[in-house]
Amino acid sequence: MALAEIQTTSNQRLDSWQPPQLENPGSTGLSHGFLADLCLKIMYYRGELTGSEIAEEVKLPYQSVLLPVMSFLRREQMCEVTGSTGVVAASFEYVISEKGSARAREQLNRSSYVGPAPVSWNQYIASVKAQGTRKLRVNPRMMNQGMSHLVLNERVLTKIGPAVNSGKSMFLYGPPGNGKTTIAEGIGQLVLGNDMYVPYAVEVGGQVIKVYDEINHVAVQDDESSNRGPLGSAANRDDRWIKIRRPVIMVGGELTMDGLDLVYDSNLRYYEAPFQMKANGGMFLIDDFGRQQIRPRDLLNRWIVPMEKNVDFLSLATGRKIEVPFAVLLVFCTNLPPGDLVDEAFLRRIRHKIEVISPTFDEYREIFSRLCQIRKVPYDDQAVRYLLQEHYIKKNRKLRGSHPRDIIDQILDISSYLSTEPRLTKNLLDQAADAFFVDL
């Protein structure tokens, strides 16, 4: 099925949602005390800092938001001004006092989080609703264009589009090696390839949850970044949000139930968002479903409420439950028979079930031809027909979409060893097939 390795890009545009401008400390959604404590912790760790440097650390504009906070800390004798590098207030140089250090140590015992100021929980929920997967739509033209790098059976292709537009769950199943994971990744490139904003962190009930993840999120250049002032931030711009490609987060056999809840660091005393929360606005792909350390039934039980209600429930270390938007295109991929994994009641809750079937002979040859072009191996249709006759039909062997890639790679390895040009000769095809196939 599907293995020409050509990258695609989506021509979709980001919805018009932008982080709102910040006019004062209250517009951050955070309490004055939270902001003051965060600035104290930064000064405690970093030593003497200018106002603009503190603003850069917490990702907040100095004049409209931090100046009132720093003035409060000075009045309370938590810090003092030791000098200035310029004439504007943001150039004042601040140093923490003994009183401020005591306060900072007290707050660090409660939470060691130091970094970009979090956004409020309500602001986060509003952003997910504005940018969620329900905003995405595809049509047959877009599907044909976006999936043109794959050789797909038309029956499969016509089922993928409606599944994507539903914004719900999708179940891709079928024999191994036919491109289920590649199809899922192609969906991610097609409909989730545009951009959105996520916060570095969120605050709920005084607790901090880190959302932005350098591993699972791909940051992109923000068009407004060129509109920054001389001190590093536009006048009222909220830099607590970072622009990323819509996330496509994939987990496999390593997935555990703990990975689906808030991860609390008892040493740092703040939380890491779970996979599905990091995937909000994008796709969460559970690959090799059924091979996780947890039972498929337990995993699907975990998803019943999110799949039906579009909300998830996470637990804080205090025992408090919080309701989180579940704006995720959830995709399960498996090469195990669905009936061996779950019963009919569970399958009913998965909106779209798509069988990824093995390629036909014509589709197999098309995949082989495309991959020969990519690998720079001259394509010979008669040689591929010989391969099909001798190593598939005569041996009653099933076609798989991944086989052309693997056989061509075998030919490249053999040719490199023999110091010859890679060609689709009968001799090289026989050697490649003998080295690749194992009769079980």
**Looking at the chains present, what oligomeric state does this protein adopt?**
single chain
- CATH class wording of the largest domain: Alpha Beta
Instruction: Please report the number of helical segments.
Output: 16
CATH topology of the largest domain: Rossmann fold
The assigned structural class equals: alpha/beta
Integer count of domains: 3
- β-strand amount: 15-25%
Strands, count = 17
In percent, how helical is the residue content?
40-55%
Radius of gyration: 27 Å
Question: Poorly predicted ranges (pLDDT <50, ≥5 residues)?
Answer: 1-15, 226-233
Distance between the termini: 22 Å
CATH architecture of the largest domain: 3-Layer(aba) Sandwich
Q: Record the strand order, biggest sheet.
A: 4-7-8-12-11
Describe this structure in words.
- The chain is α/β, with parallel strands linked by helices and 440 residues long.
- It has 3 domains: 31-116, Arc Repressor Mutant, subunit A (Orthogonal Bundle), CATH 1.10.10; 124-132 and 164-355, P-loop containing nucleotide triphosphate hydrolases (Rossmann fold, 3-Layer(aba) Sandwich), CATH 3.40.50.300; 361-436, Helicase, Ruva Protein, domain 3, CATH 1.10.8.
- The protein has 16 helices and 17 strands.
- The chain has helices at 32-46, 51-58, 62-75, 98-110, 121-131, 140-146, 154-166, 180-191, 275-278, 296-309, 338-341, 344-349, 361-375, 381-393, 403-418, 426-436; strands at residues 49-50, 79-84, 92-96, 119-120, 170-173, 195-199, 201-204, 207-210, 241-245, 248-251, 263-265, 270-272, 283-286, 311-315, 321-325, 329-334, 352-355.
- The strands form 5 sheets. A 5-stranded mixed beta sheet has the order 4-7-8-12-11. It has a 5-stranded parallel beta sheet with strand order 10-13-16-5-17. It has a 3-stranded antiparallel beta sheet with strand order 1-3-2.
- Helix 2 (51-58) crosses helix 3 (62-75), helix 13 crosses helix 14 and helix 15 (403-418) crosses helix 16.
